Each structure stands twice: as structure tokens, then as C-alpha cells.
Amino acid sequence: MEAANKLSTIAKTFKPSPIQELSHLAQSCNAINLAEGFPDFPAPLHLKNAAISAIHSDFNQYRHVQGVCDYLAKIVNEKHNLDVNPQTDVAICCGQTEAFAAAVFAIIDKDDEVILFDPCFETYEACITMAGGVPVYVALDPPHWTLNPETLKRSFTEKTKAIVLNSPHNPTGKVFTKAELEVIAGECCSRDCLAITDEVYEYVTFDNNKHTSLASLSGMKDRTIITSSLSKSFSVTGWRVGWAIAPHLIASAIKNIHVKITDSAPAPFQEAALTALTTPPEYFELLQKDYESKRDYMVKLLEGVGFQIAFKPQGSFFLFAELPEDFPFTDMEFVKKMIEKVGVVAVPGRGFFHANMYLEKLCEVDYKYQNRYIRFAFCKSDQTLASAAQRLGSIKF
Ligand SMILES: Cc1ncc(COP(=O)(O)O)c(C=O)c1O
Fold first, then answer.
1. CB neighbours of 259 closer than 8 A, spacing ≥ 6?
2. The Aminotransferase class I/classII large domain covers which part of the protein (predicted)?
């Protein structure tokens, strides 16, 4: 049997991402991993104890922990001034990733257009195309990744069904401004369009930047699906507890899809989520402070090496560093060299850009910058960052 002939059309369209291609090389060179967005330091002890206790208490079966929905509703209602009903408007999923996929399957039909900002976290497009939807990219303008309201307005058509907003943003570390959120909300309302937000970095913002949920803007609470998770706020990306919060008809569709795909998120970790979601505010203050000092360390380190850092991350735990203008290598070539010569791996920026011919023509965007960025993750222990600094110190541009 020729297995390749048996693959579905959609499966054939997916290729390994640049990061997957490089990870084998990185492993063979024992490289320090500044590529992937997961912390390499321990999760909070009180959370681990809660998970251990849940396992000892035999929470081993399929499970829906309503208390998680109750706490989430309380948090978002207080924080974003919403009126989420915990009984009907919250779906617990396996991480933001499943929440996002279920949200897309709940609202996207064949040929529906979905607006995304470019550069963009990679998984959104796959979900949209699997649902038969069409991703339409709106380029954010470098070096500060600003949103041009005119570009956004021109991207809507009568087929636009939804817009995806990730703030704080992976890969750039941008936190969308209030003015930008207002433009997005205004367009969603006047075009009668839905929004799916990805707020996994909601607690990781720096300087005076604050996270605002798009759902809290005028006219948006009935047209926004909030997705988020425990992964980044509590350094537990492997626990797979996330959620979607949406108007009840949509939330109910998401729940139905979630049950069909995975049935339920891991039971002991849902129990531990009850502890996470009642964590006192001091935890989040410390989290921000820690990440802010890691960000400052990385900015200084990479500037010292010769990268151009025109945009200091305002949130998330990624730094999108630009290669010097006259540097003869592309992002891909440079990352290969960085792995082989100094033993540090990061992600070539090109994987986050999605050249969209239609849009390129429409907006006359210059896409040449797309192979000039490298994404460094700084969600790593001080020890890891110091070892990376030692190795990167030997690079000369
Ligand atoms: C923007 C963004 N959204 C979602 C995720 C994945 O979240 P989860 O672990 O909850 O599926 C990541 C992980 O890197 C991310 O960067």
C-alpha cells in the first residue's frame, strides 16, 4: 500500500515547521534551547501539590470540574467587566490550542474568511484551513508592529466571518494599544464579525503596558470568544488545561466539539486549576517582575552581540531580534550557524510570516524583511540564560 496516496488532501498540505526541521540538528549539537515557548524552571509548588493530591484522591476518570468555570467567570467578570455565566459560557479544553481549534470549528464554514495579523503564531492557520476557512493576513508594520487601520479595513470582505487577536503577541512581544483595539472592535461591530482572542500571555506584560481583553470593548462581549490557558501563567504547558469563554450558544457548540475530540481535559490538572485560579495577586506581580528582568537581560545580551532590537517586548516571553542590515545570512542560515558554531537554538522568523499574494498586492507591503528576524524565548532559568549568554558572546557579526 502506498501510504502517501491514502493521506487526506488537508494532511498533505501540512509541512514540518522550520522549528521542527531545526530541532533535530539542535539536539545532535546539544544546543541550549531558546526556541520553544515553554519554561525550563519548576512550576509553583502549591500547584504541583494540588495536582499530586488530586492524583492521590483518584481523580482518574473523564471529568468536568465546574469550579474551574466558576472561578474563570469570576476572574474575567471582575477583570474585564463582563457578565460571563459560568454554567453556560465557559468550555474547559486541553490547552488554548484545543480551545482555539474547537472555537474555529464552531464558527467557520467552507470559504469563510478569517483575518489574522502577520507575523502570527503558527497554529491558527492550520485550524482555519482544516475547517475550510480562508486565512487573510493583515501585516503589522515593523519595526514596532503597528496596526494600520486602513490596511485592516481593506482586508474585510462580505465573506469575513472572524478576526483573530493574540495580545500580548507571539512572536513580537507586542501588546496591542487601546486605540488599536478600538479600531478592531469598531470594524468587528460595523461588519458584524466575530473575534477569537488568544490571551495566554495575559499576565506577562512589562513597563506600563496592561492587558485589555477585546471582549471588554463596547459591542464586543457578544461577539468575542476568549481563549486562554494555565500553560504560560503557571509554567505548566504540559498540563493541557485551557478554556474558551463565549456567548452561550457558541460556548455550547465549542463544548460539543471538545467532547467529540478529546472528551475532557486531564482530570487531576483540572483539580489543580482550582488552586491556580485562586492564586493571590502577588504571584502575578512576581511573575511579571521575573519575566521583565529576563527580558532586560536578553535585550542587553542580544544588542551586545550585534542584533538590532528596535522593539523591546511589551509582553509575552519572546524577543523578535533583527539581524544587522548588512549581514550576509538569512534568518535560517544564521540559526543553523548558531546551532553548529555556538550551540544555541532559536526560531527563524520566517515561520511566523505568511506572504499573502492577494494582500501583498493590495497593500503594497514590502515582504523582504521576513527573513531578517529571529525569535528568542526568554522563559528560561537564569542559569540557562547565563549559559546562553556565554555561548552567544562568541558570535561576531
Ligand atoms: C500565542 C500562543 N498561543 C497559544 C499557545 C499554546 O497554548 P496552550 O499550551 O494553552 O495550548 C502558545 C504556545 O507557545 C502561544 O505562544
1. none
2. 32-378
